Queue: 2 jobs
Job 1
Amino acid sequence: MSDTLKNVRTVSRILGWVCLIGVVFEICLVPLIWHVDGWIDTSASQMTISLEELRALSGWQKYAVMASMMLPTLVMAYGLWRLRKMFLSFAENHVFQLAPIAHLKAFSVALMAQTLIKPISGALTSVLATITRPEGERVLSIGLSNAEASTLFLGGLLLVIAWVLGEATRIEDENRSFV
């Protein structure tokens, strides 16, 4: 086995674990924001309403807001899970095969979906959090940044690379069948 393949296997094992940590973090992020002081300071740019407003919510409203905040994080958790599966395939020396390519496609679609869902989720969160306020005090807040455009571009790039790898794998399989 070449040194490059050994490096691919080693780094892929490490990145598989990093992705697993990312999945757990994504799933725990929203509850941590709600229940652990200090987490909101690092996430304030992503919030459309204040922590005090979130903690003041109760009943259906609290759970509806939490669910709307969880939408993009669950999509990204799924994407990271698929990325992890790709890295684990690489670690088992399954490099130019359809399974890891399918995982890369799924991750890229999840990345783009999460990016598109995030501003919608933020708007829904702001509406749900302020819907019980008197008229004139309700809020619809949508946040967009250059980061979303960059992430969409990256997701599209990864999707095209996955398609190209899939086509290369198909052609190699076809050429092998002629021999």
Job 2
Amino acid sequence: MYFTDRGIEELEQRRGDEEVTLAWLGERLQEFVDVHPEFETPIERFATWLARLDDPDDD
């Protein structure tokens, strides 16, 4: 099991009943990068991947 799997499972257990907006998620990611700037590139890649997930031009 990857560490991310455990983190995702914990997130689902603790916050799984909540509904959030993409704006809220974006704000939390920005706050995270402010505290942990070494994660700026991975967070940017993740956000870009999510943004383009259903874009047929990116296949």
